[in-house]
Amino acid sequence: MITPPFHPKLKAVLIPKAIRPWVLIMAMITGTWLFACGPHFPNWLLSEGDQAFLQSPWLHFKSEIRALLGAKRSPYKAFPARKDRPTQTLEMALTDLSHALESVVYTQEDRQVILRQYKELREVIHRYRQTLEQWESMNQPWFPNPNPIPELEPIQPVEGLPEEFADYLEGAIAYHQSQFPEALEAWQRLLKLPASQRHFRSTWALYMLGRMQVDTAPVEATKYFQELRRGVQEGFSDSLGLAAASLGWEARAAFNLKQYNQAITLYLEQCAAGQDEASAHQSIERVIRTALNDPETDLLPLAKDQASRSVVTLFLSYRMAEAQKPLQKTGTDPFERWLKALERSGFNSDPLVEPLALGAYRRGLFELCSEYLRLAPTESLNRAWLASKCAFREGDLERAYKELQFAARLFPSHESVISEQPSPSESDTHSVLWMPYQRVQGELALLTLHRGDYVEAMEILLKAGYWMDGAYIAEQVLSSSELRAFIDREYTIDRQPYDLDQNVQWARALTMGEPWPNKTLEGQLRYLLARRLTREGSLEEALNDYPNALKPSHLERWAGIRSGRDPSLSVAQRAQALWAAARLTRYQGMELMGTELAPDWGIHGGNFQDGVSIEDRQQHLGSHRLKPTTEETARALKSQPTPNQRWHYRYVASDLAWEAIALMPDEDPSTAEALCEAGSWLKVKDPQSADRFYKALVTRCSKTALGQAAAELRWFPPSSTIASGTDF
Predict the structure, then answer these.
(1) How would you write 196-248 as a 3-class SS string?
(2) 682 touches 654 (CB < 8 A)
(3) Predicted TM-score of the model (pTM)
(4) Which residues of 546-585 are buried (b: 16+ CB within 10 A; e: fewer)?
(5) Could you read off the pLDDT of 536-555 as tens digits, one per residue?
């Protein structure tokens, strides 16, 4: 087993005071751990069992770099492109030239002529580059471009152009024609001018000289980039923010020289300057991966440098793809090599304990993870969160519950939402990312449910945004009276009328993003309760909990059932009332009495079956400790609708129709139509249940056209009155 590189009694953090704020910020970033939960993964927890709880936290790497940089500022300022780069470059070139011409004795007319000719010349170069790129895009090894390669139009020198602009332009023309020695000569000639005569184009020339040689002569390129930044500090113009851009290019040169520590430092400074942040993050990952995967690379310089040590530790612990593989003790495993480098570095830094603990957890080194956690600060969310998972693995669910409760209490000051979309290299997460608080609460609810605290578990899940998990408890585990008591206590007792948010209705299966407001959540729970009460036959009690739009349909159905069973009415009136109730049940049954989850899956509009169910919770092969208890199972089975079939309301509608048709006269075309339509409700899904309507059609209505057609077909003929509506 690998020994942690920190002594339990060692409290001092051996880091220079000037950069301790960086480490402090890193140590405090307890609110940015996220979990993979993408569009191809279920956005619920209860049906995933143990694995939902044991899934390791992971880091949003970009946010951690920002937190690591903190308030650090670079002396150089990036200039993000407001337009496409060539256009912005042309505009800045004209601006610089205009300023340069002001310091020379020219007439206003001469200045305008020089500016116009210079602009035309730059536009010629720009058009040439566009044409060349189009030609190259169509020139493939398997299908060469039959057209001749474009050539740059002849360019006449601009008379009166200041010498630094003329030299730079000569080099640019050569560069765009891939005549690199000529470009090098022109730009070096520019740099030999007196400082007072190259104020505007020194930075541009140095930048291009460095870029030309960054891959072929990285040492020379580094000299040019450093000279560029010295020149900016001395007062040379930097209208395009090339000093900031040079940081990334110099980092690339350092990478080419395998100076990984220097490369990371420069990329971090590039981030601090605000220069192409996304590119800098990707480049940092590339440097770290290369260094860690090359067994010949000495990691000690990275381990000794505070910034590099922090970034590499965070990256390796949270992000590296190899972190999902078992540790290979061959001496070449990146995680093992990094631990040894930290031990050799002599820096025993407490803020690195928790990232290393997470790295060990993700690698399956649970004993090592526990050792690191014992060194972590007690009042730490990260420590408590990971400790709960380790305790769970050891079978100590009570300790896991207490640790997670402690972690949840630490979260109120860490509830910021991370709203940016990570790159594919970071994760496959949904476009809206979780607040970490939600995940901690969701895991706490898993243990709370297992303890039998059903109402508390439901409340935690609903407030954390896990609608499907909370709806499972509300609909299948709690009794309707327990759910009603919760709504009365938590929201309102007087049952005010309300409308449902249609946007929520069509998206309520997704438990991503921020939890619903209380008003929205109250409406969804009351609607769920109304449908449940209707299934249980408590139609009057259900009325006030339906949304306004559905109350008329519920009242109509309720009145139909009540009238149909009223012996004081005529047989014809009763039949008509029951038949109307039956058709309402069939064609609006999902809305009026459909289950939110199984078996009707109203959460998905009844279109497919996917989500939390007692059957999935019982059968999940990866679940051992969090399988439903005997009591939860009994409650869930007791709450199932009758019959417990997909689209169960169709069966309820069929029973009402059978009751209505029993009151209708034989050999009547209307009776035949009703039998034919009611039979169609189940004839495809459940022919056996529909068979009674077919037999009644051929026996009670044998003289009608539909009855005779049914006898000939030996099944239902088409009915002219079947509604074309859908379930929802």
Answers:
(1) HHCCCCHHHHHHHHHHHHCCCCHHHHHHHHHHHHHHHHHCCCCCCCHHHHHHH
(2) yes
(3) 0.71
(4) bbeebeeebebbbebbebbeeeeeeeeebbbbbbbbbbbb
(5) 999 999 999 999 999 999 99
